[in-house]
Amino acid sequence: MAKRRAEIAMTEAEQRAFLEEAVAAGVTVTFASIDRNGYPHLVAMWAMLKDGLLHFTGYRKSQKILNLKRNPKITCMLELGDAYDQVRGLVIQGRAEIIEDPELSRELMMVIGGSKDPNHPMGSASEEKVMAVARKRSCVRVHPEHVYSWDHRKLGGTY
User: Fold this and answer.
1) From the CB of residue 41, how many other CB atoms can be counted at a distance below 10 Å?
2) Contact call for residues 81 and 133 (beta carbons, < 8 A)
3) pTM of the predicted protein model
4) C-alpha distance from residue 66 to each of 55, 74, 95, 148 (Å)
5) How far is the CA of 37 from the CAs of 71, 74, 142, in angstroms?
6) Tens place of pLDDT for every residue, the chain, 159 residues?
């Protein structure tokens, strides 16, 4: 089984390309933090790449942000492909950096929301309203520490 895993692992260059493709395609990223009882807390979020790192935003009082402030360990998973022989995915385990910057929150809200949903409420909101929401949010920058991946296309249609 270990040989099979090695066969489908992506190189670092393939991982970067996959991450860029998946985020550009609007894939929903599953983020896991650790709650106060030690259990994984999973959320599905839209994200963007900025300076080569995953970023997302959430309300400061949201459970995911509170969890990450208490314990910055985070795991992120992205996957593309509908048929088994086309499935590709990436898991990033790392450290979440919480950034309290309304301008960055505004940028993330507009880029992520605007690119994923043409009817996103922030798209037609006044700058004043957008900033009022942005001031209530935190940004999360994911610093990778361990990455693993799979690309079933490398199996050549075999199982």
Assistant:
1) 16
2) no
3) 0.89
4) 16, 12, 14, 26
5) 12, 16, 22
6) 567 778 899 999 999 999 999 998 889 999 999 999 999 999 999 999 999 999 999 999 999 999 999 999 999 999 999 999 999 999 999 999 999 999 999 888 888 766 556 565 555 556 777 788 889 999 999 999 999 999 999 988 776
